[in-house]
Amino acid sequence: LLAGDDRIAGLDIGGTKLAVVLSNARGEVLAKRSEPTRAKEGPEAVIAQLLAMLEALLLDEGMWMQGLEGIGIACGGPLNSKTGVIYSPPNLPGWNAVPLKELVENATKLPVIVENDANAGALAELRFGNNPKIRNLVYMTMSTGIGGGIVLDGRIYHGTNDLAGEVGHQVVMPDGPECKCGKRGCLEAICSGPSIARRARQHAAAEDTLMLELAGNDLESITSAHVFAAARAGDSLASRIVDETAYYMGIGIANILQTLNPEVVRIGTIAVRNGDFFLEPLRRYVRQNTWPSIFEVCRIEAASLGESVGDLAAVATFLERQWELTGTD
Amino acid sequence: LLAGDDRIAGLDIGGTKLAVVLSNARGEVLAKRSEPTRAKEGPEAVIAQLLAMLEALLLDEGMWMQGLEGIGIACGGPLNSKTGVIYSPPNLPGWNAVPLKELVENATKLPVIVENDANAGALAELRFGNNPKIRNLVYMTMSTGIGGGIVLDGRIYHGTNDLAGEVGHQVVMPDGPECKCGKRGCLEAICSGPSIARRARQHAAAEDTLMLELAGNDLESITSAHVFAAARAGDSLASRIVDETAYYMGIGIANILQTLNPEVVRIGTIAVRNGDFFLEPLRRYVRQNTWPSIFEVCRIEAASLGESVGDLAAVATFLERQWELTGTD
Q1: Model ipTM value
Q2: β-strand A85-87 against B79-80: which pairing, if any?
Q3: Could A174 and B173 be called an inter-chain contact, meaning their C-beta atoms sit closer than 8 Å?
Q4: Is the CB of residue B39 less than 8 Å from the CB of residue B75?
Q5: Nearest CA in chain B to A262
Q6: Could you give the CA distance from residue A325 to residue A176 in angstroms, rounded to a whole number?
Q7: Which of A314-323, B154-163, B167-176, B222-231 has the lowest mean pLDDT?
């Protein structure tokens, strides 16, 4: 059983950024490092990079590897959360069946837990976010993609082959725009950052809009941040795109509510950065598309850990598995 | 702990039909009675009717009430599965906060468990259907309405206020047809029996179709059974309506798969009656709208207990709660 001052390392493997965090068992971050991922050099190089970052962090803190209780790793899926093997995530080229858990365990002689990053984010929100008494929580990433982690009755629900929670690829617009995943009309194909920007660019050519000015008059440079900034300034096209985003995101969340009847849905990056400007229309569309008795018990919020949810995701994963093993809560 | 020969009663409360079943703990039905529900007379009358049916059934079998280990009750929701209080189901007028569990416990002096009928059906499929090793199962009713019961990691998932699994009221056609629930574009508003019949009637007036003949040339008499019968006979309009039904049902099920990554989805009445004639196009549309890695691990089937799933639903509910209490599986 872990005590509050026990030290845990959290490793966050993203396609563009690696982060290493040192934390105690209360989820307080003691030190942190991050570097751009040397993704092109393949899995061995990235894992070596990660271990070097961890060793440098420990050195700075005057610690040895054996002073850690264990390591949690959050990584893009698909992966097997039991064996800790990674299966070709779209953002990590060349990671074909990489036994990440085993490799890091062998290198560090420490217990290692590997979890999908959206699930890990859900655990961080559950354990370290607002209101830790929550039992049923859905965490949604909303940035480059739309992912999800589902906590039911206080535990991550993994599904049959670790693919539960892929709520960004529910179909909310039959025969809608093509999604990177190969399907059509997925929530992600309309409401992810790049999808919001794509819709903005499609219309910005034909219509006078502040978005274009914010993007230095370069149509191709328009991002979702420009869309939200222009909408806040009252730009009519940008406001329509934000409203449409809230509408489809509202349908997607309403469908999750009708299926899972959760206590809270927490949404990452774009919702964190835009707060009620986005959440208010979003809640209105969720309410419109779900039952009052289901809507009333569920809070629709930005991730309560804000943009630092990623820092605690990997740590929460390790702590969670320890709690499961020891049967404590 | 129950032994295989222990006797359990299952009571099934529907808006049009009441059923009482005597079973052993292996889920073998020993005797059964059913009667039309005296729904108009209100809850006291219906509960009295149900208890009289149970007493008559026991008398026939030469048993006393105290020879039963307990009673499971399956009833339309909304209801509280812990307290056993029923809150105004649409098909049971006047059932406002009826303490069903308490009333039946007081009348019989037996332990009573109350469960939502779709959840109870899911439990029956889990315990007594094909392949009892399944851990993650979604059961969908598909008749007057579309309901759902979700079994995750071997247990019914109830949600925050007993409203999980209302997958028939996910939105699959934004701004689509009005649903009885008050929303628009719900799966139920397109794919339930009455919704299939409604769409058939809308088109049958303008187009030559076998459906009209099957319904005695009375447009208003067309039912979903006529639609499927005409489609089997090659009728073009009926075939289009069946295909459209499979298309939207496919999207709804695909969305469930992306969220829950289950091992099996079992579908009631309409899928049971039409088998592969409906399930084959349905599976094609599910495949088209979900990820291969999620689709491959999930079987889309008709309820394996067929139309007798209702007989075992209430019994399975009682057994399940006993298993939970004793911690055995």
Answers
A1: 0.94
A2: unpaired
A3: yes
A4: no
A5: B160
A6: 44
A7: A314-323
Rounded CA separation B288/A182 (Å): 9
Closest CA to A185 of A197, A174, A196: A174
Decide if B195 touches A, using CB distance below 8 A. Answer: no
The alpha carbon of residue B138 is apart from the nearest alpha carbon of chain A, in Å, by 11
Name the residue facing B136 among A160, A183, A255 (closest C-beta): A160
* pTM attached to this predicted model: 0.94
Residues 267-326 of A with CB under 8 A from B: 288-291, 293-294, 297-298
List chain A residues with CB under 8 Å of B169: 258, 290-291
Instruction: For residue range A135-170, list pLDDT tens digits in order.
Output: 999 999 999 899 999 999 989 999 999 999 999 999
Residue-wise pLDDT for A176-219, tens only, equals 999 999 999 999 999 999 999 999 999 998 999 999 999 999 99
> What are the distances in angstroms from CA A184 to CA A178, B182, B321?
4, 28, 42
Contact A169 B262 (CB under 8 A): no
Provide the token pair at A197. Answer: 């920007």
Q: Please list, residue by residue across B200-212, b when 16 or more beta carbons sit within 10 angstroms of its beta carbon and e when fewer do.
A: bbeebeeeebbbb
Given strand B85-87, what is the order of strands in its sheet? Answer: B79-80, B85-87, B96-99
Burial class (CB in 10 A: 0-12, 13-18, 19+), A132: exposed
